[in-house]
Recover the amino acids of this structure.
């Protein structure tokens, strides 16, 4: 748990996109995008393919500098990747080091942050327990299921002790049961750490189930088309939440938005 | 079964026709010659000379090739800058630099080592460079997101990821080293297994010459098997990953 920030910054948004435009050559991917995400908020980003949702995430992570506009993180302009901003990639198999064990992969983030070797063991055990993989420290990624591999990647991101978690369709490649399990685990972890989450998905139900807010992007070029608050009570429940009239209404709203955005 | 039959056939043919060939010998004579040069020490001495030259040249060329390959893999502008130069030098057959090497180093180990190193340098450099270019881009992104230092990125991500393919380059270079060492010995350098073959040929002793030939084949085979084993021991896991992808 991070100590609550009592400085002036506490009121500043954790992530602020200020009129972001991103172009590759003549092709504009994102146009004039402004967005503020508050502390501890879970914001899900949806939109048809080509709307720049993954690109927006990469800009937020400092992996790509915007062509115009500024991204601010906790009030500071973003100049490249930061260790307190962790990125969970969709392709967990490619994002893990195949020659390192589960513990070794998590250790990479601790090594990067300069954590002393004597402290790493305990930290790694805690993180593995947190993602439900206690006792699997010596397994290699290739010996694990997709869900387990994604948990390792999430644990590696948590090892960064992040203020912000950027998640790029993290559960998109997993089967439905595993996905639901990981959704609930993620919500529990986020509730505990108080991290701010920017979650890209193409699954509308996932967006409604996880989010405090769902941003829908329109394509060509990418811009905000809808900014929908999700006021479903927490903790959420896979069966009950998904059966409430409010959930169904929100799902319908977003479905209609995507329908229109695609045509 | 087939090789055994061929050996028996060769033996019979040589005995029946009573050959006095200067290039062929009966298998039994080859075996006898083999034991003769084995026990008078000349074969082991020649083997040592060849392996020392080939090994040192391999180590030197491999090291330089690895260093350059890593450098060019990491610094793209340098890679583009040097490309023409490298493509101009690389196709030179290694034996063609023999006259120059002889002028610079004279006869002996150093000349042979220099030529072996020259021939080992290129495959290692080029395969190392391409191994580094073939690294999963996502892993490099992870290293950026974690803000690894350049040294840590090379040490913890780039090299381990490229290692299985670099190891293949080293195995290739090792077999090249032996071939080039023996060639240099036959062509010019008065030492080692190649020189042994040449002397036997000029002394009209085909059995000794062929015994050397068989022995060189065995040395080459053992060298490659040894490196394969080492590769499996050292990089068993990484090697499997490479095979799976």
């Amino acid at each position: 748990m991070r100590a609550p920030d009592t400085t002036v910054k506490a009121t500043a948004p954790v992530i602020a996109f200020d009129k972001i435009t991103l172009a590759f050559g003549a092709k504009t991917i994102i146009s004039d995008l402004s967005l503020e995400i508050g502390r501890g908020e879970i914001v899900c980003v949806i939109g048809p393919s080509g709307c720049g949702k993954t690109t927006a995430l990469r800009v937020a992570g400092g992996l790509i500098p915007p062509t115009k506009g500024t991204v601010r993180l906790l009030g500071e302009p973003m100049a490249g990747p930061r260790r307190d901003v962790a990125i969970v990639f969709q392709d967990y198999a490619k994002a893990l080091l195949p020659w390192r064990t589960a513990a070794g992969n998590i250790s990479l983030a601790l090594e990067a942050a300069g954590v002393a070797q004597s402290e790493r063991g305990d930290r790694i055990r805690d993180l593995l327990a947190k993602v439900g993989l206690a006792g699997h420290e010596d397994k290699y990624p290739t010996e694990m299921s997709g869900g387990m591999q994604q948990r390792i990647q999430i644990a590696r991101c948590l090892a960064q002790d992040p203020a912000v978690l950027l998640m790029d369709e993290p559960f998109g490649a997993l089967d439905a049961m595993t996905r639901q399990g990981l959704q609930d685990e993620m919500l529990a972890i986020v509730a505990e750490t108080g991290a701010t989450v920017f979650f890209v998905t193409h699954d509308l139900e996932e967006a409604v189930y996880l989010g405090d807010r769902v941003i829908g992007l329109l394509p060509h070029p990418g811009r905000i088309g809808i900014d929908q608050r999700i006021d479903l009570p927490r903790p959420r429940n896979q069966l009950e939440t998904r059966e409430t009239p409010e959930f169904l209404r929100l799902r319908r709203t977003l479905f209609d938005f995507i329908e229109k955005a695609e045509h | 079964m087939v090789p055994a039959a061929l050996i028996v056939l060769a033996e019979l043919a040589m005995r029946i026709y009573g050959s006095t060939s200067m290039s062929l010998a009966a298998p039994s004579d080859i075996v006898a010659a083999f034991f003769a040069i084995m026990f008078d020490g000349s074969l082991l001495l020649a083997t040592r000379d060849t392996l020392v030259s080939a090994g040192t040249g391999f180590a030197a060329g491999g090291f330089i090739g690895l260093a350059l390959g890593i450098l060019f893999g990491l610094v793209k502008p340098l890679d583009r800058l040097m490309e023409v130069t490298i493509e101009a030098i690389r196709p030179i057959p290694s034996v063609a630099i023999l006259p120059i090497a002889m002028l610079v180093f004279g006869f002996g180990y150093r000349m042979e080592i220099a030529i072996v190193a020259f021939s080992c340098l290129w495959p290692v450099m080029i395969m190392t460079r391409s191994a580094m270019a073939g690294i999963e881009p996502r892993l490099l992104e992870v290293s950026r997101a974690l803000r690894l230092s350049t040294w840590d990125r090379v040490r913890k991500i780039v090299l381990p990821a490229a290692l299985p393919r670099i190891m293949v380059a080293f195995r290739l270079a090792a077999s090249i080293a032996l071939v080039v060492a023996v060639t240099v010995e036959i062509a010019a350098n008065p030492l080692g297994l190649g020189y042994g073959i040449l002397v036997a040929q000029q002394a009209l002793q085909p059995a000794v010459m062929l015994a050397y030939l068989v022995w060189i084949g065995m040395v080459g085979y053992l060298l490659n098997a040894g490196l394969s084993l080492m590769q499996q021991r050292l990089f068993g896991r990484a090697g499997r990953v490479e095979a799976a992808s």
